[in-house]
Design a protein that fits this description.
Helix 6 packs parallel to helix 8. The chain is α/β, with parallel strands linked by helices and 474 residues long. The chain has helices at residues 7-15, 41-49, 84-100, 115-122, 153-162, 187-198, 213-216, 220-228, 244-251, 259-269, 317-326, 352-362, 380-388, 391-397, 447-456; strands at residues 16-18, 26-29, 32-36, 60-63, 103-105, 130-133, 147-150, 164-167, 171-178, 206-211, 237-239, 282-287, 294-296, 304-306, 341-344, 372-375, 401-402, 423-426, 441-444. It has three domains: 7-167, Aconitase, domain 3 (2-Layer Sandwich); 171-242 and 269-290, Aconitase, Domain 2, CATH 3.40.1060.10; 295-465, Aconitase, domain 3 (2-Layer Sandwich), CATH 3.30.499. It binds 3-isopropylmalic acid and iron/sulfur cluster. Belongs to the aconitase/IPM isomerase family. LeuC type 1 subfamily.
C-alpha cells in the first residue's frame, strides 16, 4: 500500500523537476504564470538584457489592476492616471505582452480585472496546477486545489525564462474548521478570526490546508476569500481540496476544458486531495459556530476583535502603538466609532457575491452623510454581472460611488485614497499604517459589516442589518 499523502505533497510531487538537496532548492514546473503591471517591468527588462524570451508565453497571462484609475476616461479619451509612473507601468505591460505574444486582458477588453479575480473566473485557475504571480495574494487560487505562490520580481524573471521556480519545500498546517457559521458571519469573519487565533506569523514556513465541514460548505467565492488571506498569517500558500463545488464553478467558466477533455480533467483533478491517515506537521482546530462578525482594530491583520468584544489594554508596546495610531482606547469596543470611508473591493471581497451582500444592506437605505463609500468590482465580468442585476443602481441610489474594476483603495496606488486620520472600514486584506493613504486608519471587515457601517455612519454590528425589510437602524 502506498503511504497516505497530503494535498500539498501531491501537488509538489506532480510538479517536481528536480528535488531539493542540502545545497539547492527544488525546481518546480509552473502551469500558469499571471503577471500585472507593477512587478513585471523589471523582469521583462532582465529577460531582454540577457537576450531571452518567455519560455511559455502561452502559459503566461497579463492583466492591469493596481495602477489603473477606477474613474472612466475623460472627454479626450484619456484615462485619469494618478501618476506618470502608473501610466508608464501600464504602457510597459502592454508593450511587453504585444512583443512576446503574451495574452493581455487589456483595459478596453471584456476580461480585465484584479489578477486574482480574473484567473478563477476565466477558468485559467484549475485544480492540480502550480500557479505563480509576482503578487503576495496569489494564495487566492489555492481555493481550487492549486499550489499558488506569490513570488518576487526576480522570480518573475526566472519563471518567464524557464517556466520553473526554485522552492524549498514547506511544512504542512491543517486548519480544521467545524460547525456552522452564524447568520451575518461569513468567510471574511472566519479568516480574520483564524489569523487572530494563529497570529500573523502563525503560518510561517507552512502551506495551510483549510479543511472540515465549514470549509466544504463554503462557495468558491468564499473559499477564495479564505485562501486569499493565508499570506496575512505568514503562510507560503493556502489550499482547499477540489470537490463538486469547485467542478460546478469551473464548468461555467470560458477556459475550462470541454467534452472528453473535461472528463479527463475531472479524473485527474479528483486525485488532488489529502488521503485518510496522511500526516500534517501541525493542526489547528477552529469552532466556526462561535465566530461573530470580526474586524481588525489595529495595524496588522492579527489584531482582530469580535464586534462586541473589548479591545486589549495595550498589553505590549506593539498593541499600545497600534491603539494610538488607530485612535482607540484599550478596553473600549469598536462599535459606535465614527466612520469616514467605506471601501467594498479588492481581491479578498470584490466578487459578485460580495457586492450582492453589500447591495442587500444598501437597498432602500442611504449611506450616512459623513461617509464616502466606494464600490469597486473585481473585474469587468463582475461589473457586468452586477449591473445586469441592478446592483450599480442600488449602490448609486444609496449615495455610494460605483467604479471601474481594479485594486483601487486596497493599495491606494491609483489615487483612490483615504485621508490622513480618516477611519475606513474596508473589505481588503491589509491594514498597516498608511496602506490606504498617508495617516489612514483601516478596519478590515466583511462586505456585510462594511456596508452596515456605511449606512450607520459608525462601526456597527451587521447582524442588525440582516432583515430583508428595510428599516432605519440607529
Ligand atoms: C503590488 C504588489 C507587489 C503587492 C503584493 O505583492 O501583494 C500588492 O498586490 C499588495 O497587495 O500589497
Ligand atoms: S486588490 Fe489589493 S491585495 Fe489584491 S492584488 Fe490588488 S493591491 Fe494586492
Amino acid at each position: 500500500m502506498t503511504t497516505p499523502t497530503t494535498l500539498f505533497e501531491k501537488l509538489w510531487n506532480a510538479h517536481l523537476v528536480s528535488p531539493e538537496s542540502d545545497t539547492a532548492p527544488a525546481v518546480l514546473y509552473i502551469d500558469l504564470h499571471l503577471i500585472h503591471e507593477v512587478t513585471s517591468p523589471q523582469a521583462f527588462a532582465e529577460l531582454e538584457s540577457r537576450g531571452l524570451s518567455p519560455r511559455r508565453p502561452d502559459l503566461t497571462k497579463g492583466t492591469l489592476d493596481h495602477s489603473t484609475p477606477t474613474l472612466p476616461a475623460g472627454a479626450d479619451g484619456r484615462l485619469p492616471f494618478f501618476t506618470a509612473e502608473a501610466e508608464h507601468q501600464v504602457d510597459t505591460l502592454r508593450r511587453n505582452c504585444a512583443r512576446y505574444g503574451v495574452e493581455l486582458f487589456d483595459y478596453d477588453g471584456p476580461h480585465r480585472g484584479i489578477v486574482h479575480v480574473i484567473g478563477p473566473e476565466l477558468g485559467l485557475t484549475q485544480p492540480g496546477q502550480t500557479i505563480v504571480c509576482g503578487d503576495s495574494h496569489t494564495a487566492t487560487h489555492g481555493a481550487f486545489g492549486a499550489l499558488a505562490f506569490g513570488i518576487g520580481t526576480s522570480e518573475v524573471g526566472h519563471v518567464l525564462a524557464t517556466q520553473c521556480l526554485l522552492q524549498r519545500r514547506a511544512k504542512t498546517l491543517a486548519i480544521e474548521v467545524e460547525g456552522e457559521l452564524a447568520p451575518g458571519v461569513g468567510a471574511k469573519d472566519l479568516i480574520l478570526h483564524i489569523i487572530g487565533e494563529i497570529g500573523v506569523n502563525g503560518g510561517t514556513g507552512h502551506v495551510i490546508e483549510y479543511r472540515g465541514s465549514t470549509i466544504r460548505a463554503l462557495s468558491m467565492d468564499e473559499r477564495m476569500t479564505v485562501c486569499n488571506m493565508s499570506i496575512e498569517a505568514g503562510a507560503r500558500a493556502g489550499l482547499i481540496a477540489p470537490d463538486q463545488v469547485t467542478y460546478d464553478y469551473l464548468a461555467k467558466t470560458p477556459r475550462a476544458p470541454r467534452g472528453a477533455d473535461w472528463d479527463r480533467a475531472l479524473a485527474r483533478w479528483s486525485q488532488f486531495k489529502t488521503d485518510d491517515g496522511a500526516v500534517f506537521d501541525r493542526h489547528v482546530h477552529i469552532d466556526a459556530s462561535k465566530i461573530k462578525p470580526t474586524l481588525t482594530w489595529g495595524t496588522h491583520p492579527g489584531q482582530v476583535a469580535a464586534i462586541d468584544a473589548r479591545l486589549p489594554q495595550a498589553n505590549d508596546p506593539d498593541e499600545a502603538k497600534a491603539l494610538a495610531y488607530m485612535g482607540f482606547d484599550g478596553g473600549a469596543t469598536m462599535a459606535g466609532r465614527p466612520v469616514d470611508v467605506v471601501f467594498i473591493g479588492s481581491c479578498t471581497n470584490s466578487r459578485l457575491s460580495d457586492l450582492r451582500q453589500a447591495a442587500d444592506v444598501l437597498r432602500g437605505r442611504h449611506v450616512h452623510p459623513r461617509v464616502r463609500m466606494l464600490v469597486v468590482p473585481g473585474s469587468e465580468q463582475v461589473k457586468r454581472d452586477a449591473e445586469a442585476e441592478g446592483i450599480d443602481a442600488i449602490v448609486r441610489a444609496a449615495g455610494a460611488e460605483w467604479r471601474e474594476p481594479g485594486c483601487s483603495m486596497c493599495i491606494a496606488m491609483n489615487g483612490d485614497l483615504v485621508g490622513p486620520g480618516q477611519l475606513a472600514v474596508s473589505t481588503s486584506n491589509r491594514n498597516f499604517e498608511g496602506r490606504q493613504g498617508k495617516g489612514a486608519r483601516t478596519l478590515l471587515a466583511s462586505p456585510l459589516t462594511a456596508a452596515a457601517c456605511a449606512v450607520a455612519g459608525h462601526v456597527v454590528d451587521p447582524r442588525d442589518y440582516l432583515n430583508a425589510d428595510v428599516k432605519e437602524v440607529a
